[in-house]
Amino acid sequence: MNQELVVISDEQVEILLGDLLEYYGYDFTGYSKASIKRRILRLYGLDKQLSFAEFRYKINNDTAYFKRFVEQITVNVTEMFRDPGFFKTLRDTVLPKLGTYPLIRIWLAGCSTGEEAYSVSIILKELNLLHKSLIYATDINPAVLEKAGQGMFAMSQMKQYSENYIQSGGTKDFSSYYTANYSLAKFSDELKSRIIFSTHNLVSDHSFNEFQLILCRNVLIYFDRDLQHKVLSLFDESLEGLGYLALGSKETLDFSPLARNYKRVPGEKIWRKVS
Amino acid sequence: MNKCDALIIGGSAGSLDVLLKVLPELNPALSFPIIIVVHRKHGADSLLPELLAGRTSLIVKEIDEKEPILAGTIYVAPSDYHTLIEKDRSFSLDCSEKINYSRPAIDATFQTAAEVYRDKLVCLLLSGSNADGVNGLISVKAWGGTTVIQDPQTAQVAYMPQQAANFAKIDYTLAIEAMAEFINLLS
Fold it and tell me: Which of A112, A249, B43, B74 could be stapled to B60 by a disulfide with Cβ–Cβ 3.0 to 4.6 Å?
């Protein structure tokens, strides 16, 4: 229990973030400070770094370690059908409305290891819309995208995911979507066939298409208010009229000047672009 | 003791009863915020803030991300997120890995608050069945804050405050009946 009190100062956090921007072009300066500092401290302790100087040197000179650093300071915790009520609204309200379009383009921003992309794909399949949908699932972090592309998740999670699925209005046998392979559940290739996994950095990259639905859940919480506004504008530029924007359960459009162009779907963190 | 700028109360199994007993006795004009982090099941709309609001005339609300932390308000950590304290004395939320099998983790809030409020922070750890909060109290002490536990003998589940007593330096050990007065005197 006796933990060592590893201390990295706020100034040292700024130094690391400055290095990342200067040497690698990754801009984390608009991230919420408490969260990013916690992630850095966690990694520092996890890798038993001997000194700040050594830690910094390694990040700046060892490409493999730099990758690990970016992977570890961004949060990649996700699950299938997280917040089942949200997915129920997608199933019952949002996606049927989009079903009238000849091609449904969906952007899942900050998709991490892909659990939500596969969840959306399952609902689209059950609504008989998958064949005419495209899900662009993006993340800043290439390592998680590689994992997402494999479509394999821990078997130990399946009980929870199956319960979430049922609560979200799913009526099929959830296990019909994957084949069990020792400790892993491999999801069917059909579900993956309409998902495009690709890197995209919400901080620095531009809009790349127009969508009818953008999902970005539990990503904005890691950004400060200014960066949140910037990213919400990016979503606004990328969303067609009458398209939907879905945020995480503790995130909101309320503080954005864009709010007046949107109408909230009652009871959910989903907004429809009305003008 | 130094002036108190924030009181954070952490608890798990058996802590709700304590809160329900203490809240009605609190001075309705507290000069600092109270932040409550208790383990609970992740459900759609939690009734906890509402339940607590029925016991006090202080404002009780569930925390929103980036919300500034104001005196005289009782903030309740939402389920399934860690609540972190920013240097500018606002909240940020984080849904990273569970800590001590818990999200919210009491440690996360205690530790980030320790560095922000330093010697003007008071953290109180209540009844509970795991050791979440203990590392947090060690940090609080290291940054000069005040550590308080519920007297394990009065706890429905003694493990959590007992672990704190074993591993962290504790300034005050309080019976449930003594808590409200202790908190009111922090003002």
Answer: B74
